[in-house]
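So, could you explain the following?
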Amino acid sequence: MDSPQPSGTTKRRITLDVRRPLVTWGARPTVTIDGVGHPAQWGSGTWAVAEDGSTEVGVYCFNRLWRFGAARTTVGDAVVLTHRAGVLPVGPGRLTVGRTTR
């Protein structure tokens, strides 16, 4: 496996829109890219992914007591993803693929 590249050298990015559920009880979203977790914020943002091959992207919410709203998908091309957790802080979430950016 190649060593990670310095920030700003990855040309392929995905746009991820993390929607805040109605009830969060202090939960914060976490984004996982190929199994590595990164803290995130509610709203839209871009994430660097590997330049070739497919990448597994996951999102879940965590509030110090439990995880909820977990969803993951594998992306091959540059895409727009939208994550929605359930209305209540229990159960799985949905990660939907939007339009391609190319």
Remarks:
- Residues 68 and 90 are 5 Å apart (CA to CA).
- The longest strand covers residues 67-75.
- The chain has a mean pLDDT of 85.
